[in-house]
Amino acid sequence: MLKRVKSKAEEQFAAIQKKDKQALLDKESAQDERDTKIRRLKALRLAKEAADRKAAAAAS
After folding, report:
1. Taking CA 44 as the corner, what is the angle to CA 42 and CA 49, rounded to the nearest 5 degrees?
2. What does the alpha-carbon distance between residue 12 and residue 46 come to, in Å, rounded to a whole number?
3. CA distance linking residue 57 with residue 47, whole number of Å
4. What's the CA gap between 41 and 60, in Å, rounded?
5. Reported pTM
6. How many CB atoms lie within 10 A of CB 48?
7. Model confidence over 12-37: pLDDT tens digits?
């Protein structure tokens, strides 16, 4: 009986570890998506600012 209880506890622990690992992977994936979006928006903003400066210089 003691072995069965220990085995069941080990199975539960392994299941919890697996859920934790999956949650961490999901969190990292979401962070990567946010980082990618931020980099894209920053590149667009910098390109717009450069185009605005060029247009202002051409207008002067």
Report:
1. 95
2. 51
3. 15
4. 29
5. 0.67
6. 10
7. 999 999 999 999 999 999 999 999 99
